[in-house]
Design brief:
The complex is a heterodimer of chains A (about 325) and B (about 375). Chain A has about 325 residues and is α/β, with parallel strands linked by helices. Chain A has 11 helices and 15 strands. Chain A has a 6-stranded mixed β-sheet, with helices on both faces. Chain A has a 5-stranded antiparallel β-sheet with strand order 14-11-13-12-15, with helices on both faces. In chain A, strand 9 and strand 10 form a beta hairpin. Chain A starts with a strand and ends in a 9-residue tail after the last strand. The longest helix of chain B has about 30 residues. Chain B starts with a helix and ends in a 5-residue tail after the last helix. The chains are: A alpha/beta (about 325), B mainly alpha (about 375). Chains A and B meet through helix 2 and helix 3 of A and helix 1 and helix 10 of B. The complex binds adenosine-5'-triphosphate and magnesium ion. Magnesium ion binds next to helix 1 of chain A.
């Protein structure tokens, strides 16, 4: 199916002094696509969104959003898009309704149109009863839902969401996910979302770009990305101590494709995890180790991220991994 | 237009939700007027002066009569009569009196016989203004007493000065009113308009409207218009209240309502635009706090609101020539006290207009539409 391009990014970069927050990034998003940027804190997600939404001028490279180049015709781009920034931006001393109404007027909407649209959207995000309360009296989650409702008042063609579910409990998160899913389905909107929750990217996005330190390290549909890494399951073992003997023996097993070791945790990229777990545990015992716990799970985008960067995304500090075994990564212990 | 109105409406709504800000903006200038009007009045009153009279002669009596007249009339000082010279002098040293006048026993005799009559005046000269005043008034009282006594020798060639007031009498308290109105405008201009931008940046909510199709001029002029509405409303109210407090007939304000409004509105626009130039790129309210003290002093002090511009040193007079508050004060004073018409203050108005046009243009140019 040939669809028009909604976003087309060409070698875009942003430097803050010596830091390259976004480093020569290129990608395209088609109309009606739900596109995700997955990356840890400081990866450059917000900086990228700000460039695409005309708030920051790129240091180099270019991007066409909706109709126009973001640097050359920012005003035209702004008319076509809606943006939910990472930080909350509603006015605390206005009511939820007023926030949305003023916003609609910024886009030049007429009052009748605004009224209908706002009531509808407030209902969609479950704020109907609180619409006429000051935003200052809202909880964090309510405020976030208001932000999402507000940006839809003018029916943007492309919606940008910078970590939209941050700070929401699992229940509200699912409410937002359902809501976003509907927008794609019914209103054929294009959605560009950043997140550091793999589950979010995996559930919502038709394509995901994984970004780390300003660079795209992998891009594709969640299934494609997972297919790109060895094995199909992950076995995680916690042992008393990871010795050379243990890692050596495990690395020689035919069903182990790759191992990532963080302190006393061993992550093995394997085929048929459930069936092969007992054999793996036996090997550890034979090498003189003691297994404290073991889990098997299907590969997720998290594992894709670890595969490419050698660190886990959840880890805010990005602990360095001690050494690797397996394909594609510099080897210390061969198999 | 819809967009511009939305910017204005948002700002007015937010202002209405903060009644404390409104109350403060109204109260501060009025309190300022009351404090300034009652503490540094143009004329001094009630300075305590001790008098010790050791002379029972007619000359001494005349001097004391003249002093009593001052104490009863302009009330510059209040007299305490004492018999002990030492106690009186100690009273000055101890701060009970600002001065002690000692009339020696032979004063009247010396004055009549043509000897050299002498009075002792002990002054608390650490307080320059009051001691100068007392010295002047007492020597005048003494001279008057002697002249009365020897009228024949009144020198014919002495010039007498009859002062002619060009305008209806304006007392010190009333003369502060234009300054207070300017101060209200300054406070309003500082806390509305560009300040909203600073706060939005500080709270990070500027992103929400920078992302919309609002243009630079929508944002800048919108905030200036809402600031103008709030500030002029407050200023007119303060104007009326200070006229009532200081006893300027309200009718004078009504008579001159149109020219006064023009000056107030233009001054407000002028200061609002100036604030946009100064605060246009500031993102922290603390900077505004520091700047407000500074700006208030450099704009208000050399405006002629309290001290006459002519007495400034040359460089400060030069500054007053580009200080919009100086033009505003001049225009308000002329309209209010000198019965001037709009044409008489056309120069002031032209300056304020040009200043506004220039700063507004710069404000829109320097305003950053990106983060
Ligand atoms: N205004 C700025 N000045 C200097 N450095 C900046 C600025 N904004 C971002 N950076 C730097 O650019 C890099 C990317 O930041 P960015 O906010 O884009 O990350 P992010 O992926 O959105 O992270 P998070 O998940 O924490 O929101 C970081 O190293 C950050 O320190
Ligand atoms: Mg971010």
């Amino acid at each position: 199916m040939e669809r028009n391009r909604a976003i087309s990014v060409n070698g875009i970069s942003k430097r803050f002094g010596k830091v390259a927050a976004v480093d020569n990034v290129s990608f395209d998003v088609s109309e009606g696509e739900f596109f995700g940027f997955l990356g840890p804190n400081g990866a450059g997600k917000t900086t990228l969104i700000r460039m695409l939404t005309t708030l920051l001028r790129p240091s180099s490279g270019s991007a066409v959003v909706a109709c126009c180049d973001v640097a050359r015709d920012p005003a035209a781009v702004r008319r076509e898009i809606g943006v939910v920034p990472q930080a909350m931006t509603s006015d605390l001393d206005l009511t939820g309704y007023e926030n949305m109404d003023i916003y609609g007027r910024f886009y030049g909407l007429h009052s009748r149109e605004r009224g209908e649209r706002i009531s509808h959207l407030l209902e969609m995000v479950g704020l109907t009863g609180r619409g006429h309360d000051l935003v200052a009296t809202y909880s964090g989650g309510m405020r976030r839902r208001l932000e999402i409702a507000r940006v839809l008042v003018h029916r943007p063609k492309i919606l940008f969401l910078d970590e939209p579910t941050i700070g929401l409990d699992p229940q509200s998160r699912h409410v937002v996910w359902d809501f976003l899913g509907k927008l794609i389905g019914e209103d054929s909107m294009t959605i560009f979302l950043t997140t550091h929750y793999m589950e979010e990217a995996e559930t919502l996005c038709s394509r995901v770009a994984i970004i780390d330190t300003g660079k795209i390290i992998a891009l594709g549909s969640p299934d494609e990305l997972k297919a790109g890494i060895p094995g199909n399951d992950i076995i995680t073992l916690t042992v008393t101590e990871v010795t050379q003997a243990i890692s050596g023996r495990l690395g020689e097993l035919p069903f182990v494709h790759k191992m990532v070791i963080e302190e006393t945790t061993l992550r093995a990229y394997v085929d048929y995890g459930a069936r092969n777990l007992p054999a793996l545990m036996d090997e550890v015992r034979h090498a003189g180790g003691t297994v404290l716990s073991a889990t098997v799970h299907e590969q997720s985008l998290e594992d894709v991220f670890i595969h490419y960067t050698g660190k886990s995304i959840r880890d805010e500090e990005a602990k360095k991994v001690s050494f690797f075994i397996g394909a594609g990564i510099p080897q210390k212990l061969g198999r | 237009m819809v967009r511009l109105l939305a910017v204005i409406d948002r700002d007015l709504k937010k202002f209405r939700r903060n009644p404390v800000v409104l109350a403060m903006s109204v109260l501060m200038p009025i309190i300022y007027l009351v404090i300034l009007g009652n503490s540094f009045q143009g004329k001094l009153t009630g300075l305590p002066v001790a008098v010790v009279n050791h002379d029972s002669g007619p000359q001494a009596r005349r001097v004391i009569e003249n002093l009593r007249a001052v104490a009863a009339g302009p009330e510059t000082f209040s007299l305490s009569f004492m018999s002990d010279r030492k106690e009186a002098v100690q009273g000055v040293q101890g701060g009970r009196f600002k001065a002690a006048l000692i009339i020696p026993p032979d004063y009247s005799r010396r004055a009549t016989v043509g000897g050299r009559p002498e009075l002792g005046l002990f002054l608390d000269n650490t307080d320059g203004i009051s001691s100068e005043n007392i010295r002047g008034l007492i020597s005048a009282a003494v001279r008057a007493a002697r002249n009365d006594y020897v009228p024949i020798r009144d020198p014919r060639d002495e010039t007498t000065l009859r002062d002619i007031d060009l305008y209806p009498k304006v007392d010190y308290y009333q003369s502060l009113v234009p300054g207070v109105v300017i101060m209200a405008i300054f406070l309003g201009a500082l806390t509305t308009g560009a300040f909203n931008l600073v706060m939005d940046r500080f709270l990070g909510i500027d992103e929400s409207y920078l992302l919309t199709p609002l243009s630079k001029s929508h944002i800048v002029t919108g905030l200036i218009i809402s600031g103008l509405m709030i500030t002029t409303a407050i200023s007119f109210f303060i104007f009326a209240v200070s006229m009532v407090i200081t006893g300027i007939p309200l009718s004078r304000g009504v008579e001159k309502f149109i020219p006064l409004s023009i000056v107030i509105i233009l001054t407000t626009l002028c200061l609002l635009s100036l604030m946009f130039v100064i605060l246009g790129r500031i993102g922290h309210p603390r900077v505004v706090g520091i700047l407000s003290g500074f700006l208030n002093v450099i704009l208000f002090f050399p405006s002629g609101a309290v001290y006459p511009v002519a007495s400034f040193p040359a460089w400060l007079r030069l500054f007053a020539r580009i200080n919009p508050e100086a033009y505003a004060v001049d225009a308000l004073k002329s309209l209010l006290f000198k019965n001037a018409a709009l044409v008489n203050v056309a120069g002031d108005i032209a300056f304020l207009f040009c200043f506004t046009a220039a700063t507004l243009t710069i404000a829109i140019l320097v305003f950053k539409r990106t983060l």
